[in-house]
Amino acid sequence: VLDSQYGMYVWPCAVVLAQYLWVHRRSLPGKRVGAGVSLPGVLAAKCGAEVILSDSEELPRCLQNCRRSCLLNRLPHIPVLGLTWGRVSPELLSLAPVDIILGSDVFFDPKDFEDILTTIYFLLEKNPHAQFWTTYQVRSADWSIEALLCKWKLKNIHVPLHSFSADKEHLASSSLPGRHTIEMMIISLAQSDGT
After folding, report:
1. Is 74 exposed, middle or buried (0-12, 13-18, 19+ CB in 10 A)?
2. Can you tell me which residues the record assigns to a coiled coil (predicted)?
């Protein structure tokens, strides 16, 4: 039964993002990575990245489940923080700069898009060379983040799934009803010259 604790599931977007990480695993050792509570963050840690996992501070069950997952994966040292999109908190302010931010299926409710990009912008400002690697399920042709990217001086690059062998049905499929088209993009700060 689905409930508001979405972080309790491994969604198809997480599997696709994990595939991207696996293909780029040799670049992960030594990188500082901020991630959600799902498979991609755990995989990044297994591949040698220094990872911080997080979900909304309002979802303690998800945070606790993530801590259990870390223990089961022999990663007891990974910090799991309650961070909420769009909310400035002492935990967010004290985060050290990261190189990569991972987010699978975070763009699912348009009312949250600006909060997400506000937080991403804050994190990218701490390290202007950092990137936000994100996968999302296409839920509506009417939803777009383009205006918000422009507002927050961010740019995105579409990453075709076939470029990292994630276009296979067994990776991006789900037993849940409905359409499950998965896309990936990398978001970074736009350069001061307007690019």
Report:
1. exposed
2. none
Q: Give the residue among 101, 106, 99, 194 at the shortest CA–CA distance from 155.
A: 194
Residue 59 near residue 67 (C-beta atoms within 8 A): no
Task: Read off the tokens for 175.
Answer: 């037993």
Q: Which residue has the tokens 């699912």?
A: 108
Q: Can you give the pTM of this predicted structure?
A: 0.87
The CA-based angle 117-189-160, given to 5 degrees, is: 80
Condensed to tens digits (0 to 9), the pLDDT of residues 10-67 reads: 778 888 999 999 999 999 999 999 998 889 999 999 999 999 999 888 888 888 888 9
In terms of phi and psi (left: phi > 0; alpha: psi -120 to 50; beta: otherwise), the region of 87 is beta
User: If DSSP codes are grouped into helix, strand and coil, which group holds residue 158?
Assistant: strand
**Tokens standing for 167?**
């276009």
Residue boundaries of the structural domains of the chain: 12-102+116-189
pLDDT at 82 over 70: yes
Q: Which residues contact 189 (CB under 8 A, 6 or more apart)?
A: 121, 124, 125, 128, 153, 154, 155
Strand, coil or helix: 144 = coil
